[in-house]
Amino acid sequence: MSVPATPSSTDGPQPSATDLARAVLAQDTTPQALLSNALARIDAAQHLNALISLNAGAEAHAQAVQARVQAGETLPLAGVPIIVKDNINVRGTRTTCGSRILANYTSPYDATVARRLVHAGAVIVGKANMDEFAMGSSTESSASGPTLNPWDTARVPGGSSGGSAVAVAANLTPISLGSDTGGSVRQPAAFTGVYGLKPTYGRVSRFGLVAYASSLDQIGPFARSAEDLALIMNVIAGHDPQDATSLHAPPQFAAGTPDDLRGLRVGVIRESLEGNTAGVESTLNATLDALRGAGASVQEVSIASVRHAIAAYYLIAMPEASSNLARYDGMTYGDRSTAPDVNTSMTLTREHGFGREVQRRILLGTYALSSGYYDAYYSKAMKVRGLIAQDFARAFADFDVLVTPTSPFPAFRHGEKSSDPLAMYAADVDTVAINLAGLPALSVPAGFETVDGVRLPVGIQFIAPTLKDEVLLTLAGGLEGVGAVQMEAPAGY
């Protein structure tokens, strides 16, 4: 794809990150021009509320990249504009986590992923909207207001990384970063029709990611092609001594071809075949037919323990959240409510600073960890977590990848589930088990379902064994080659 010297802000789908970087290195365009284009597109899409803030230092970073290119540096992300979720620290920018309690917090340091992006020549344009402290599946709980789905603005984009997903789906930037604790990259990717990758736990450094549930959180990218996923993963993955959970696994990502699908052993998780809408079911069947046509073998496999994944997940995530969010007391940083004494000040700070969903999870998490209930809830949930990991390991003895729908339904309407927490939690039924097991998984935009006259994207989730993340990108490239990936831009974007 040719890249004009000054890309228009409204000329339809934009070039890929790979093409943009090549154009900058060839000096066919400049980082400043790409930044200007991204800012124009962001301005034109303000109604989607995909961003919480812009990076005031972006212009200086673009100029620095231009100087490095002119000096002869070969930068993998040269000049590529990128948006990162607002729970990823970027020095000199606000990091609010979508919460009132951090509304005025400016980060004094860079997360490892942010530092690696800048080193690779990317220009961080801004911070994406999100469910408060990443607790949600719809990006409705943000203190900055809800993000809208570009396919139908009456519907949610998924969550909690809804802003990051919309940034890519609406062509604001070609790639973005989110975080995934129980599906928060994959589910919004499915709802907005883009790729969303949750890497193996520890494959991408969490240093500088504001913690929700530390044993589950993982940073992951959104993109519109397997090639772009490989490009950014080769930059952000890899060991980091600042993260004690970081793994020694040098990244070797590349998009595959249809030939790579021949002989692939695909297991369809039987428990995921229940409760899906007709459009999700037909999309899954079409994807499986494409795999068979390319020479893959496809069989069902039972992983019975995943039926308990939702319960186990929330009995682990909420206690970890309760512990992690104890630091937001108004004493050290963040907003503080004044009062005659420390205890009242702390109570008011947390009451006014946290939204209802965050308060609910803190209370439930504290309860599950309290004396007399730890063994009844948290300890048992951890045992179920171990069973889930064992069941996945057994399945991978017979299969190279496993497959499920990413979500049993496409994007739902704003407000449809927000008054029923249990219904909202159940939206993650196909994704949370992967985080419990620490596995890599990729949501592939594979089809559409028409709901109330509106055409909505459907995602299919592929799961690989631990540290076999590269297999997922090989698979994605192969699916692109056989026409099984349905990548479109929403009308008007």
UniProtKB/TrEMBL annotation:
Which Gene Ontology biological process is one annotated for this entry? translation
Its subunit composition reads: Heterotrimer of A, B and C subunits.
User: What are this entry's molecular-function GO terms?
Assistant: ATP binding; glutaminyl-tRNA synthase (glutamine-hydrolyzing) activity; transferase activity
What biological function has been recorded for the protein in this entry? Allows the formation of correctly charged Gln-tRNA(Gln) through the transamidation of misacylated Glu-tRNA(Gln) in organisms which lack glutaminyl-tRNA synthetase. The reaction takes place in the presence of glutamine and ATP through an activated gamma-phospho-Glu-tRNA(Gln).
Q: Which organism is it from?
A: Deinococcus puniceus
List the GO terms this entry assigns under cellular component, sorted alphabetically.
Answer: glutamyl-tRNA(Gln) amidotransferase complex
Q: Which domain of life is it from?
A: Bacteria
Region Disordered, annotated ranges: 136-156
What InterPro entries does this protein map onto?
A: Amidase (IPR000120), Amidase_CS (IPR020556), Amidase_dom (IPR023631), AS_sf (IPR036928), GatA (IPR004412)
Enzyme Commission (EC) number = 6.3.5.7
- Give the protein name, as stated in the record: Glutamyl-tRNA(Gln) amidotransferase subunit A
Per the record, what are the reactions this protein catalyses? Answer: L-glutamyl-tRNA(Gln) + L-glutamine + ATP + H2O = L-glutaminyl-tRNA(Gln) + L-glutamate + ADP + phosphate + H(+)
The Swiss-Prot or TrEMBL record describes its family as follows: Belongs to the amidase family. GatA subfamily.
